[in-house]
Amino acid sequence: xxxxxxxxxxxxxxxxxxxxxxxxxxxxxxxxxxxxxxxxxxxxxxxxxxxxxxxxxxxxxxxxxxxxxxxxxxxxxxxxxxxxxxxxxxxxxxxxxxxxxxxxxxxxxxxxxxxxxxxxxxxxxxxxxxxxxxxxxxxxxxxxxxxxxxxxxxxxxxxxxxxxxxxxxxxxxxxxxxxxxxxx
Length: 184
What we know:
Layout: H1 3-22, H2 38-42, H3 49-58, H4 61-64, E1 70-75, H5 77-81, H6 87-91, H7 97-105, E2 108-109, H8 115-124, E3 129-132, E4 138-144, E5 147-151, E6 157-167, E7 170-175
Helix pairs in contact: 3-7
């Protein structure tokens, strides 16, 4: 085998080895790896620092690092910034852990639901599909074109901006708005 053939074979092997990851979109400027779990990938996204801090404050790191499968609708930092001033800071306080946990678990579904599966459920249900979350919230899923939208219990529209980010324990769909449970 010549040096050129060896170099070409090595380069080809390197491309093929990383090919499994090429399917996952970049999120927050970081590669997302299908062999890492939800938390391991989220900590690398510059767009999810608030979400990661909230998951830590709520004590959900171990859960979301677990076997799953989970579908997480992961709000970006700008989604948290849309909440009224002081809300995030208040939610991160230890005395508000239960409320924070409720909000965060309204972003989690106990299934591995890729976007095409969600679209299929929406189609099967005549244009909208109710999605029950781990936190007990009921989300109404619809789509327009290739954009999946969720409506939370407060009537907000949440748009999936990056779909199908595969994880070892499920999938992340990046969203533009924090999902909120029904007001008490």
